[in-house]
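Example for tutorial group B:
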């Protein structure tokens, strides 16, 4: 078991930030997380969070996954003192971190996310994993499923995917899986590319436009200059920044600011 201090680290906020769809709160207040073929139970408390994993698993996987070696307070300190909106947003969502998630899983996740709400996205990803992913057994005797790989999904039919209520996204998923499985795009090469080039490569995939590519760049490739624009972000940028966000000031952490803005706007009723 590993103890993490809740300094710029909040599992409830990360869970609701719209970047991770396989992190679920349990009835007892703990959380279940499936990432790649790893399972983790987390228990947030007031001052710290317990991670139920070995020291080795923490060091080799979860520390990087949660981006725990990055100083998010330094990002918050870069916010313009006159920008009261962004300062409030960062304070409100100060426990959010940009996760380092699997690129293949994020490609399909954000294809599925188009014109969808968070509960339905979670349900579709769960169903896809249960049908085509490898089974994971926990020490508690619970069963979870890893996200299915491209080779597996490339072999299914569009009709099978449509039967899972994936709708028009079924064609995108199938075409993308076949492209990746055949080597049409090399996912392993993406992390070494600069942001603009990685974004360009991703947009070659079926169903991946600019916004989806930016989500993949930010939440999988950790391209911190990626700034996905959805209706929440556009509304805020238009109303608070005259349609022009100050990207130059936030070079290297614009994506972090995007998450603060998104979460603040999304959870506005809690303010």
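The residue assignment follows.
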């Amino acid at each position: 078991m590993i103890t993490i201090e809740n300094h710029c680290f909040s599992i409830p906020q990360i869970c609701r930030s719209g970047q991770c769809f396989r992190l679920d709160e349990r009835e007892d207040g703990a959380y279940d997380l499936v990432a790649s073929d790893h399972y983790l139970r987390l228990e947030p408390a007031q001052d710290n969070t317990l991670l139920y994993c070995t020291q080795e698993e923490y060091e080799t996987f979860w520390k990087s996954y949660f981006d725990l070696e990055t100083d998010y307070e330094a990002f918050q300190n870069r916010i313009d003192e006159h920008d009261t909106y962004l300062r409030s947003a960062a304070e409100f969502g100060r426990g959010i971190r940009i996760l380092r998630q699997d690129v293949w899983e994020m490609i399909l996740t954000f294809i599925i996310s188009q014109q969808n709400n968070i509960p339905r996205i979670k349900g579709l990803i769960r169903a896809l994993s249960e049908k085509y992913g490898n089974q994971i057994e926990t020490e508690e005797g619970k069963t979870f499923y890893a996200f299915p790989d491209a080779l597996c999904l490339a072999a299914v039919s569009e009709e099978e995917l449509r039967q899972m209520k994936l709708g028009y996204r079924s064609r995108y998923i199938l075409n993308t899986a076949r492209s990746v499985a055949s080597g049409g795009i090399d996912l392993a090469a993406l992390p070494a590319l600069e942001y603009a080039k990685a974004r360009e490569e991703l947009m070659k995939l079926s169903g991946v436009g600019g916004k989806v590519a930016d989500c993949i760049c930010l939440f999988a490739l950790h391209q911190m200059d990626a700034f996905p624009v959805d209706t929440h972000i556009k509304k805020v940028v238009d109303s608070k920044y005259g349609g022009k966000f100050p990207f130059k000031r936030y070079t290297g952490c614009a994506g972090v600011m995007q998450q603060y803005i998104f979460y603040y706007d999304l959870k506005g009723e809690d303010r």
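The beta strands are 2-5, 23-25, 31-35, 38-44, 48-51, 135-137, 143-145. Compare this with the pattern of hydrophobic and polar residues in the output above.
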